[in-house]
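Assess this today:

___
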Amino acid sequence: MNKISKYKIDKALLITLLSFIIISILSIYSAQSLLPDGSNLALRQGIWYLIGFGFVYLIMFIGNDFIIKNAWILYIIGNISLVLLLLFAEPISDAKCWFSIPGIGTIQPSEFMKIILILVLGHVIKEFNETFSNPSIKEEFFFLLKVGAIVAIPSILTFLQPDTGVVLIYLLITIIMLFISGIRYRWFVILFLVLALSIGSVLVIYFLNTDLFIKIFGSSFFLRVDRLLDWSNKSGYQLENGIVAIGSGGLFGHGFNNTPIYFPEAQTDFIFAVFASNFGLMGALLLLLLIAFFDIKLILTAMKSNSNINKYIISGIVGMLIYQQLQNIGMTFGLMPITGITLPFISYGGSSLISYMIMIGIIFNISNQALRNIN
């Protein structure tokens, strides 16, 4: 194998990623002034990025084929980690989503489960399409049952933490990858009808009989539904202050490290508000253009690939990223419910950032498959 070509990467993706790194660290540094403990999160984010590049190199070194072949092992490990969370993790903000590791911080297994799920589903879809060139409805039905079982296990375990936002990402990844897989579109009509009926039934019980709803689903789920349904009134200290911070930035912003108003979770959920407040409308538009360019580049990479499994994997990654981007930025403006979804590559977070960098390594492998002479 030609070692020189092995480590060539897509320069456009790399430059965009480096731009994200600069924006992330600047925004998190500015957000630190809004935090009560004054933690040096910008330095930590820089360290996480360095660790992330180590994972990118590792992924490029071992190649995607090895990772995909061992996707089921990763799936088992991922689900075991979710079970261990429920059994042994200390609650943080009434949720068992993180393992606390002294000297390192917290690790969130569900962030890694997202990419594991993409790899497993890509593998399963590839096997199905290679086995059945023209599958019958019965064969597709049993295939969908298999996919449903694969997705249901981590979804239930993650829901129990509770982390509804990540469960929605699991489901969105699955729907997009199945759509790309080429199965009959009637299944999506049936799926949406079932979802509409299920959601409608839940909402009917929620509005007509609160006590019965809590008795069936529990108080935790009631509070989550209540929070989602309450977002449309655009009230709340965090949202109102975030919107004021963005609006006050004007065309060019207040300047770096100058966020004039406090709002909670500035380093994670509302990182876009920090950046827009500092650099104004022009800075916000620049970030949106970078995000759009990055997503389009990934789509073009999938279209150029001759491997179906590469197309499935990138479709899952792109679907996940676009959802999180729209959800995070939308909730900052009150257009979407505040669900705790972070902005990929920009918000502070070790687990999420490492998982995104693992995805970058996989994408670099796909975009440079011909250069690296991998079959």
About this structure: The mean pLDDT is 88. The first strand starts at residue 99 and ends at 101. The beta strands are 99-101, 105-107. DSSP finds 15 helices and two strands in the chain.
